[in-house]
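Dear colleagues,

As part of the handover before I leave the project, I'm documenting each prediction I ran so the next person doesn't have to rerun anything. This entry is a single chain, and its sequence is reproduced below.
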Amino acid sequence: AGLLSDMVRGVDHIFHLLRVPSKKAAGRGGVSPALALTIKLMTLAESLGVSSFVYLSGSEVYGRPHETFIEEGEKRRPLTPLGKEHLSIEDHLIGTAAERDLLVAVLRAPPVIGWGTPRDLFPSLYFSLRSAVTGKPVYLIGRGENLVQYIDVEDLASALARVILVKDERRLVLNVAAE
């Protein structure tokens, strides 16, 4: 942790943006590599006295939603490896937040679009084509007015920047969404 400690010395806020599920099975004590990394990063954050630790989770923790807008208290039932990975990290961070002397925030975001890849430029086309090729159905949210929820990368960056301004909270879970 020496190099990492040197890199983050003097930092006030840590944004943990891991978005890739672990391909390796959970190790000792059922801890996945991604969760082990999160625990190390949180320990480092505390030792350096940072004021906030923000984890970017995903709407994958809800599985297939039935409504367009999902409230933070909605039951979490992930179906994908990424959703399950997010859930284990969220549970650890939320479960240990009271012990920590810093803001622990979890932001749950839908798929992010923007900044130029074909998937980002035409997400509905991308997911429709993927569905056609794989034979997997495209599910509808609500009555189908909003087939898939996306958020623009700039809106997500704004949400990340705003969450560190929250005062008088030690634990915070927020869903980030777009209309």
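The chain has a mean pLDDT of 75. The helical segments are 2-8, 33-48, 81-96, 118-121, 123-134, 153-163.

All the best with the project,
I.
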